[in-house]
Amino acid sequence: MTRRSRNSVLSLCTVIFFLLTALQPTAKSADEETAVIAPDAKAEARVFLELHLSPDGVYGVDSQGVEWEYDFSQDKFIPGGSLSSPDMPGHLIVPPTVPELDSLMLQAEQHARTAQEIAGMNDSLRKEIESSVLRRVRGLQLGTVEIGPEEIIIGPLVAVGPITVKGTVKGDVISYRKITVTSSGEITGDARAPEIVKMRGAIIGGNQMETDLPKIPEIEIFDTTSHTALIANLIILAVLLFCGLLAVAIVPNSINHLEKCLQTYFLRSFFIGFAAWFLFGPIFALLCLTIIGIPVAIFVLPLALVLGVILGSIGLGQFVGRRLGQILSASFNSQLLKIVFGLTVLYIPWIMMSLFMLSASKLSEGLATLFMVLAIIIWAIGITAGLGTVVLTRFGTRDCEKAVTISVKLDSFSPPPPPSPPPLKGDESETKG
């Protein structure tokens, strides 16, 4: 072997030695790194407990409370803060098994589509409710009743006249004449009438009974929280105030006579008014026994009673207004102002009763009953006394004192002399002789 070839072999062996020397520490460090990277055998397996899709990206929380974010550039999940585990320092966290990104996106799209469908259903339901007119019919209807195609009636519907149902009635429908249910009409309860017409497409959920005289069910005229009582009382008060205005404009002196009679003879007026209430029935019956008295009993007597009650109420209002003005040291120069103030104060119990009826609580119900009893007592006494003053003053045409007090003035004169007795017969003969 030449010298040159021997040097070449020696150099090659030296290179191989250095390479083996360099590779041996590297392999050892690789083994050490593998030991570090491998998760501890005692550590629990990590799985995702929550997965969220937001505009900021996809993130999840594993069983040990570590947050993970999906890195679209690396196409894998990475921890939300550091690559090392907070409870296992020095160990590289191995991402738990998660579904594929495509399946997550598909689920998100399905959820979005479901939300849109629910929103569309809510919109259609809201439009259907807005297009419908919800109405509640209370009490017995005297005339013809027609339910429109977009109307919904809650509760029973009872009418003397015919009923036409084009919408929906959630309850029984009773008519003394005829019930017609069109193709768009629906009755969830029973239908009772002498004649029932059901067109094609109409729905009657309950029984369909054709009877000559349907039985009227028990119906609450006023709800517990009804505004009807308040509206009715305000209308009655407005009518009384309007009648007071007419009375002041037409017969102001008559109202003054009524007030003066109430102020002077209130107790006597009350008993006379009570007698008028008691005798109204017998007088009505006696007048009906004769042909001439029938028109008086039917027309004149009830009209006189109504007019007397109205005039008595107006006189009572002026009386109360004057007395309250004296108590409050307020001078009411106007006669109309006294009547308005007095009637309003007298009507306060009815207004309070109506306001408490707006609430459904037990306390409000008890207070409404209390004010109703108080209002009945006040107005029963007041109207009776007012009617008595109307009778005493003959509808306010004369003063009450002249009607009650009868004074007889006796002039001073001497009584006539007694008549002389007639002469006797014997005396007459002696006189002639």
Description:
This protein has helices spanning 3-37, 101-131, 228-250, 252-264, 266-287, 293-327, 335-346, 348-356, 362-392, 400-404, 425-432, and strands at residues 48-54, 57-62, 67-71, 76-79, 133-135, 140-141, 145-147, 151-154, 157-159, 163-165, 168-170, 173-175, 179-181, 186-187, 191-193, 196-198, 203-204, 208-210. By secondary structure, the chain is α/β, with parallel strands linked by helices. Among the domains are: 133-210, no CATH class; 228-404, no CATH class. The strands form 4 sheets. Strands 5-8-11-14-17 form a 5-stranded parallel β-sheet. It has a 5-stranded parallel β-sheet with strand order 6-9-12-15-18, with no helix packed on it. The chain has a 4-stranded antiparallel β-sheet with strand order 1-2-3-4, covered by helices on one side. A hairpin with a 2-residue loop joins β1 (48-54) and β2. α3 (228-250) runs antiparallel to α8 (348-356). Mean pLDDT is 74; it is low at 17-44, 81-99, 219-225 and 406-413.
Question: Any key phrases for this structure?
Answer:
5-stranded parallel beta sheet; 11 helices; alpha/beta; 433 residues; 18 strands; elongated
